Amino acid sequence: MTDCRQPLTFARGPALKNRMMLAPLTNLQSHADGTLSDDEIHWLTMRAKGGFGLVMTAAAHVQRQGQGFPGQLGIWSDDHLPRLTELATRLRENGAVSSVQLHHAGMRSPRDVIGEAPQGPFEDAETGTRALSTAEVEQLRDDFIAAAVRAEKAGFDGVEIHGAHGYVLAQFLDAENNRREDRYGGSFENRKRLLLEVIDGVRAATRADFQVGLRLSPERFNIDFAEAKALAQEVMEGGKLDYLDMSLWDCFKAPVGEAEGAAPLISHFTALPRGNTRLGVAGKIMDAAKVQACLDAGADFVLIGRGAILHHDFAARCVADDGFASVKNPVSEAHLRAEGLGEAFVSYMKTWPGFVGEPVEA
Fold first, then answer.
1. How far is residue 20's CA from residue 266's CA, in Å, rounded to a whole number?
2. Using one digit for the tens of pLDDT, what is the confidence trace for 64-74?
3. For the chain, what are the domain ranges?
4. What is the pTM for the complete model shown?
5. What are the pLDDT digits (tens) for 185-212?
6. What would the CATH number be for the domain defined by 20-326?
7. Which has the closest alpha carbon to 322: 281, 290, 359?
8. Residue 181 and residue 174: Cα distance in Å, rounded?
9. Cα–Cα–Cα angle for 123, 168, 158, nearest 5°?
């Protein structure tokens, strides 16, 4: 039986010392120009010290105009390299494999943040989005690839391509609205083309042992569930990825539209052939028992989000204690500061209903 303490090898790059990754977590702590702040480096380094096998950055936008929120990490300029290099060094020194998540918000880029109309695969009146030209789509692809090369240059072990949660690559997958008439829209074959070209390009442009992962989400944002499963199987069997990160929101719920008691969401993906690609899952994993349940269900590793905000050493605690469970919300601001969150991050967590407040009595 697999447990969280066991190392995990990949087709390329270093092995993880255990089966737990830090999920890529929005934290609003970067400077306005996209460079890493001391607070963000501190937050991530604490998670490396806290025993996570892999520590991943928050979503890092690959084009200036792809920014999704204030305080977002950037990787679209060589100006970002010095502090990225510092972070990669810190994570390595503290025993973690490192990764940058590559991101572009597309039509979810706020106009007041980027200073122009957002850009995406199709026009959208509600957000004021304008449709990218074919040449601009090709430039977007190339900028994802350039960002991966930048991460490699900074000393990271790999990157994760963000194809989930309704951001730009997922917007191209939109089965309802992406009716582009070029090779990037219409049929499923065309709608997945950009994502596959990014994977191919990153693999070709980086060294042989550079780790490449992909995040997908199978529901919401007009993603067709059957297409999501087909795409997951295709990229796992394709051999270009080292891991697929399925962001499920709740690993053990039934898929949308299916009755309660139907096969849990996680099982739809752990049942797929995966070749040599490792499969990870994220979604309401808040204690050691749920980590083990995901591994028992067939996942190779888990990604920890909220639990890692609440405990910088969530991974080390799970390794040490099969009965470990995260503290219950709400927690105090002082608790979050002690766990390495800077003021911008604490303020952001206060916008999450029920997360911050007076602690619950035991």
1. 16
2. 999 999 999 99
3. 20-326
4. 0.98
5. 999 999 999 999 999 999 999 999 999 9
6. 3.20.20.70
7. 290
8. 14
9. 165
